Amino acid sequence: MIEMNFIKYLTFKYKLTRHKSNKSKRDVIAEWIGIFILCLSATAVLYFIVNALSEDIQSHMNTYIVGLFAFLCLISISSATKAFYKEYFLSPEREILLVAPIKNSQIILARFFIVAIEVLLINAAFLLPFTLANYFAGNLAIEIVWLTIPQIIAGSIFFSALAHVLYATAFLISKGKGLKTVAFSIMTLASVGVIGVIVYASNYKRYLLNQNEWVDKMFYLLLQYPEYLLENSIELKSLALSSMVILLQALGTIPLIYLLTDHCYKKGLLTISLRDLDESFYSNKASTFIHKYIRNHFIKKDLLYVLRTPKLFSVYVSPFLFTSVIEFKNHFASSGITLTILINVFTLFMTTVTLNILLSDDKDHQDLLFSIPFDYQQLYKMRSRIVHIISFLLSGSYLLIVMVLENVELQFIIYGIVQLFILTFLSSKVILSRIMKRNAKKYHGYKYNGEIVKPLFYYLFVWNIPLLIVFSILHEYLRRIIENQSLSIQAAIILILTIMIIIGMIVKSNKTTLKQEVNRLWQT
Fold first, then answer.
1. For residue 294, which phi and psi values (nearest 5 degrees)?
2. Transmembrane segments in this chain: where (predicted)?
3. For helices 104-136 and 6-17, what crossing angle results, to 10°?
């Protein structure tokens, strides 16, 4: 049997996955020309925006690019992880490869570079136009722009390697059972480790910036580019040398990744069933408990779905990580009224994430939910309760730790927890009722179509911003009471009115009634 070589496999892969199977060479060339023109347009738009900024902001633009680079590193990890999962377990040729005349080495290399290319496209789409725009605006040296190109290529290879290490480690731990859950859990633990370093190791930044020799050599690929950005200058000799080193360091990961992945192939990575893949190693006992003790079918359905979601913990890492980084630098929790703003924004993040998890199940089974009769009001009541409890427990635990670490006074900690409880209660009810009302009215039955942005904007402007103002007033009067031990009559009246407004909003949100639209399918 003639074996398929590397190029033939990539051609075969392209024919399977391209959107239009009858594309001509002219169509492909036209598509690439369109992408090139789009990149030039993005660069031009960014140039005009950057050029319109003040000189003070433009003088710090290299620092902002370092921030963009750091953000893209986080995005690259997530993108590489998702691309690996899609390429290995959801690709159309997955079963064909078990019998196709192709070596494992060809499959490993092809998939490695397919993941790398996906990461490369994301980085190139954001980093290249931004650096080019700043070069034309006179904020960056041309050598930095040239260095950006090998940096993007090397970074893409590195993050593809990181995704392979992640899944290989998860496979060796799980033996294929619940691989997806284990992989996401490892990524979550790593992210929590980053948060722990940021929160507890106050000298972590100084350790990296001191250019420790071991750290400098190990992570040259990631650390050298930001250093040149901050200096905003590099000699041609250093440019050539740095480009060569980061590319060699990235390419040096390929043999190691190949050996590790090949070992996993021999252990059965290619033959994992989708059932074993999605199996949750922690959900069996929890599912038994839910079936035994939870009687309400709506609560049971949502809890089982949440527990069986492989990315249960990982989806909450982003708001935790982002908030930790911002809080570490600014100390909002211990800076007076900014505590109210922190709680307000963080609560909205957590409620949205929790709602999105639960509603994704409705979207996946929208036709089934549309075709069967059930009590809308009961679903709304039970689901809003679950969202409220989950959001309050998670955000409350995190913010309580932050406030304790920053030595916030006990009175303000209690105030913060009460504010958090009220905000999670209101946001869970208002956003969910808005979503369900819109969908029931549109389809004459419950059929969630994934639209969550408009209800979020409604809650933000009609509820969230007024609540922010009201709780800011409460925070200020609480501070006055603690400092002066008394309030003037005018201040006391305003305080009472503010509390009455909050009570009124709670009562209003609690009176939400969903009209039971009659689905025509029920009548047949």
1. -95, 120
2. 28-50, 62-85, 106-132, 144-170, 182-201, 239-260, 305-326, 332-359, 386-406, 412-435, 456-475, 487-507
3. 70
Q: Are 446 and 369 in contact (CB under 8 A)?
A: yes
Instruction: Extract the tokens encoding 475.
Output: 């925070």
Residues 6+ apart with CB under 8 A from 283: 307, 308
Instruction: Give the 3-state secondary structure of residue 102.
Output: strand
- The enclosing H or E element of 383 equals helix 376-405
Rounded Cα gap, residues 129 and 156, in angstroms: 17
Rg (CA), the chain: 27
Measured distance CA(176)–CA(182) in Å, rounded: 9
Q: Tell me the three state secondary structure of residue 367.
A: helix
Please calculate the CA angle 466-472-476 and round it to the nearest 5 degrees: 150
Distant-in-sequence, close-in-space partners of 212: CB < 8 Å, separation ≥ 6:
none
Alpha-carbon dihedral angle through residues 173, 174, 178, 182, given to the nearest 10 degrees: -10
pLDDT tens, N- to C-terminus, the chain (524 residues): 445 555 666 665 655 555 455 556 676 677 778 778 888 888 888 888 888 877 877 887 888 888 788 778 878 887 888 888 888 777 766 666 666 667 777 778 888 888 898 899 888 888 888 899 888 888 888 888 899 999 999 999 999 999 899 888 888 887 777 777 777 777 766 666 665 555 555 444 444 444 556 656 677 777 788 888 888 888 888 888 988 989 998 899 899 998 998 888 888 877 776 666 666 555 666 667 776 777 777 777 777 777 766 556 566 776 777 777 677 767 778 777 888 888 888 888 888 888 888 887 777 666 556 556 666 677 778 888 888 998 899 889 888 988 888 888 888 889 889 999 999 999 888 888 888 887 777 666 666 666 778 888 888 888 888 888 888 888 888 888 888 777 778 878 888 888 898 888 888 887 766 665 544 444 44
Residue 356 · residue 451 · CB < 8 Å: no
* Best CA proximity match to 263, nearest among 403, 157, 164, 358: 164
The number of beta carbons lying within 10 Å of the beta carbon of residue 479 is 16
DSSP string computed for 431-455 = HHHHHHHHHHHHHTS----S--HHH
Sequence spans of domains, the chain: 60-118+140-278, 313-523
Single-letter amino acid, residue 207: Y
d(CA 162, CA 80): 8
